[in-house]
Amino acid sequence: MLTLTELRGELATPKQIVVTTHYKPDGDALGSSLALFHWLRAKGHAVSLIVPSDYPAFLNWLPGQEVIQVFTQQQEAANKLIQQANIIFCLDFNGLARIHTMEHAVREAKGTKVMIDHHLEPEGFDDIRLWDPTAAATAQLIFEFLANHMDARDMITSDMATCMYTGIMTDTGSFRFRSTTAAVHLITADLITLGAENWKIHDFIYNSSTESRLKFIGHCLLNRLEVLPEYNTALFTITREDLQKFSITTGDTEGLVNYALSIVNIRLAGLFVDRTDLVKLSLRSIENIPCNEICREYFNGGGHLNAAGGFSSESLHATVEKFKGILPNYKQQLTT
Fold first, then answer.
1. In the chain, where are the structural domains located?
2. CATH number 3.30.70.20 given to 211-335
3. Distance separating alpha carbons of residues 268 and 201, to the nearest angstrom
4. pLDDT (tens digit, 9 = 90+) per residue, 52-77?
5. Are 50 and 19 in contact (CB under 8 A)?
6. 4-206 sits in which CATH class?
């Protein structure tokens, strides 16, 4: 495996570069990708930012998002860019299955693959790695990559700072998760100094709901929330009909699972959504309840200790019943 020092040498001269991130990019995925894109372009590289799918409308304001190419919409052109790239930066994921239909193109590409990520158990497809599972967000690692490894703090613009702050803020649940260390606060303070307007970013992210989304949340709280007090667990079960009735689009279910986790004594929360082809699930927990283990062992997924996701090819009902059947295995952790 190559080193970050060697990568710095490679980046000293103009290169053809692709930056990509995981399917259905969130705030950290897009924030870290756009920050890196801006820096690479300022360094004189020919950079393309290609994502595997669409992303939530509440991220449409991010500086530079208009340059993003969606792979499924421009597949032929995107494949060519991937094939021609000298370097491919893979951000906020560590297994190529996470980029869905882009997987083959990236796996077969001859360019140097650089992984910058904070999730557990990397697949090992990368040639260069900046990986820290204790980091609060990939955007934190991008800041450290630029400031420490590339000696480029002075090149961080207000747009780059805004993108990185967005990534850190969203992946820490507005700085309330246990990953929010003193070091994270120091980085975000530096980003504010560099031009990130924290109050405005919060407003763009959290005060952008549509009327239909708010009604959807009310419907879920009233009709789709189930509490299992014997396991200190709560979950939402969202049907295809729910999604259609409220015209749900990408990002509209974001944060819904946290309502279940906010109930007194609840230690594990789940969100199960019937996406027609697959059932998508998100788990959240407190303390040492292992969301990542549950998703990895039973639902083809993974993630962090207290936040993870996965999917099931079974029906919505069967998937939820499977989840409930797993809970006795964790009863001691959930109830003591």
1. 4-206, 211-335
2. no
3. 29
4. 999 999 999 999 999 999 999 999 99
5. yes
6. alpha beta
